[in-house]
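**User:** My hope is that you can spare some time for a protein that puzzles me. As I understand it, each token names a local backbone shape. I would be glad if you read both lines and explained how they fit together. The protein I mean follows directly.
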Amino acid sequence: MARGNDSHRARATRSAGLVPLVIGLASAAALTGAAYFTVDSASCGSPAQYIRHDSHVELVGGCVDGANLPVTGTPKSGGVVHGNYNP
């Protein structure tokens, strides 16, 4: 059995493997650019910070005004303290 065309087939395999790599890198660069533009264009007056009080943590500042959020009732936990809460 003669294999006279093996070198051409090996070259085609290498170039075929390079195309998905280039497409992947281009996609990653485009998504990184879009994420950077989104974060850069989101302007906020003051950055948000968490302030710890006696029994709870409060988010102060940031882009979201608390007056614009819908009012909900207080959650009824029945006095249960969850084990994964770390103040």
